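Quick one: structure tokens for this chain, please?
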Amino acid sequence: MIDQRLEKLAYILVNHSLGIKKNDLFVISGSHHAAPLIKEVYGQALKKGAHPYTRVGIDGLAETFYKNASERQLKFVSPIAKFEIKNIDARLGILSPDNTRSMTNVDPRKQALSSSSQQEIHEIFLNRAAKKELRWCLTQFPTNASAQDADMSLSEYEDFIFKAAHVDKKDPIGHWRKIYTEQEKIRKMLNQKKKIHVVAKDTDLTVLVKERKWINCYGKENFPDGEVFTGPVENSAEGNISYSFPASHGGRLVENIKLWFKKGKVVKAKASSGGKFLNSMLDMDQGSRKIGEFAFGTNYGIKKYTKNTLFDEKIGGTIHIAVGSGYPETGSKNKSGLHWDMMCDLRKHGEVYADNELIYKNGKFLI
């Protein structure tokens, strides 16, 4: 018997996050671990009159690919993948790993080469999403691997996910709409600002956001959600930032990242572990050393770091800054095969100034 919370989660994803409707071509992807949620979403999409199809992954294929693929294969762009991203109406990705560290020993140069080759597909996706031609969402299915990363039992991790998603509410969709209303005050205030200055431990960073659009995130592209973000002016970042939590990307974890920016680009990068991988990603292409996203995490129901970016970047009282591609709907012009979110905790002794006015202190907006 399916967990009723999964039924409710599927309902929110189909009706709120993705707004699935009649005749939508809708792809659902995840590992075999996510089968209960995939089946539930698939069934509910059929009832809406959509045309859902699935891509169910097998654990270990990515590791096998990177260990055996030639340079020609690493650079290959599948015409099938290109056709799909040009034609689907909606896409749901369900994170459901069996091993979150399976890529640890893969050559980072191979990962960088493969990611760079997929930039065309990534740009088609971003541009279609910005024009509202393609609706997308990323969510999480509880697995033992993710629970272990979070230092929880599987049942504890299930409770954590469903609580963060507010499926326990009588009207969860109404609750997410309420979050939208609350975050609109923040978005409208930030939309009037030209410069953001972050000050925290080992951090003093300034970016320009003039004429850039801030986006209110309330359970559409990510679920669960809770952030307000923009794409800073590409050549504006000056100063340095020290990230509070290990940053995960491509199945690898990099710890104690510190970045130094000059004229918008990372000119120096350090990490206590994973430094080679970090610099390989930053050297991926012309846009990978620039900032594509600056965001405030606003979900104060998520308090604990879990080594899962989907949740960690939403922690209320944190900011996250992504190096690499930006979202065109914000006005960002940065293009890259990379988009890597890294989190900075501002809940203790953190301050954010907008146009030289203190707007955020110790993890809270002062509005």
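The mean pLDDT is 95.
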